[in-house]
Amino acid sequence: MTQSVPLYIGGEFIQSKTNQWIDVTNPATNEVIAKLPCASTDEMSNAVDDAKRAFNEWKNVAISERARVMLRYQHLLKEHHDELAQLLSHETGKILLDAKGDVWRGIEVVEQAANIASNMMGETVENVATDIDSYSLIQPLGVCSGITPFNFPAMIPLWMFPLAIAAGNSFILKPSEQVPLTSIRLAQLFEQAGAPKGVLQIVHGAKEQVDYLLSHPDIRTVSFVGSVPVAEYIYHTGTLHNKRVQAFAGAKNHMVIMPDANKNQVISNLVGASVGAAGQRCMAISVAVFVGDSKQWIDDLCQEMALMKPGAWDDEQAAYGPLISRAAKQRVLRLISEGKAQGAECLLDGSDCRVDGFPEGNWVGPTLFRSVTADMSIYQQEIFGPVLICLEVDTLEEAIELINQNPYGNGTSIFTSSGGAARKYQHEIQVGQVGVNVPIPVPLPFFSFTGWRGSFYGDLHAYGKQAVRFYTETKTVTARWFDDDIPTGPNLTIQLK
């Protein structure tokens, strides 16, 4: 019997009374594994009302106790790490190794949330004027919300609600309708860690439920990760309703290969960074920019990519899993076809990929193009599949100019043995996250995830100190006490009756 995904409202896992349901499918088989409810208006309203109630109590809980909840939570997440990874693999199709990485990167953010006290400290200046002191207080905002994508169903929710809740807020999570099961398990463990009822709510649905979160006056913030058109819509709609919004959008991440780089390291890192997780990650390397003689390595790159075979989550020989849906597969195949039609040379074509035992899976094999130009659709659009395109330039300056003209600015990397080239690149490139001999430079949680330009809508980024500022407000107090008011006299003892 197909399970119905519960809502999590008021600290209870409840079955929705909606009449609108969405099928949740296994990407490796396209079999229906669950039914997802589109929460009714009453259910959405109940979630907001209870989150508001919970906030009014939770904000007054000592920050040390809020930190202890996060300490217990990270312990439980580690204890259930492999179980979470297997659940995540079933609903995303990720191979187990990728799924474990998804869970672990989320745990790292929870560990940072346990350090919340040091990030909530204000500032004090004594005698800003005669006998007047000023100090600032960092206080939570209220009800916060998050809308998360399919590709990291553990990591990205854990980017959001632990830090928001540790800072004293309550949180409403709407996970992707394609992968709702992992978030429910995350909530169960959060409750087991001692989180009070109501500080976390989980609702399900599609655009109607998103619009409810974007427009409800009691919701103070919206965090989002997803595609460019939706991120733009989330940002403009949320800010129109006076909400603080951080919306992480698409990417077109370039790796620049200098001719003095270590060839073996380049090829090994480039293969993994481009086809790992089936290319379905916003920090995947999808463009390789070969500078000068390094273009001679493209044939060797092709040979290594050809060895990468997709497969089921528990296949230890598989390099990556299926795409998330049939629609996603068809989009990737369309872009591959357009690349060929527009004159790019397809050195490796994964369009007709098959995996034994899984004839209905959303498989795309590793695909490699060269002779790509910046006006081609495979360069201009985020493919979000196991597809790597190669461009060739003569100088580092040309590579920098090419990347800075691209509308996206999420991540980039340079492989070189020259400190001068690396410094020039990291200084001049207009991209928020830069790797030097590191292919996917995702920062650890004590920094922040800092995409730029068309990859991000908002001001304050995810996790790290910026996230704490996103989920809090600063109150400044200016105080004066008068010497004349100091009590005097022989007996100041309070008399108890």
Automatic annotation (TrEMBL):
Sequence ranges assigned to domain Aldehyde dehydrogenase in this UniProt record: 14-477
Protein's name according to its UniProt entry: methylmalonate-semialdehyde dehydrogenase (CoA acylating)
GO terms of molecular function: methylmalonate-semialdehyde dehydrogenase (acylating, NAD) activity
EC number: 1.2.1.27
Family from the record: Belongs to the aldehyde dehydrogenase family.
Species assigned in the record: Vibrio sinaloensis DSM 21326
GO biological process, one term: thymine catabolic process
Membrane spanning stretches: none
Pfam family name, one: Aldedh
NCBIfam families: MMSDH (TIGR01722)
Domain of life: Bacteria
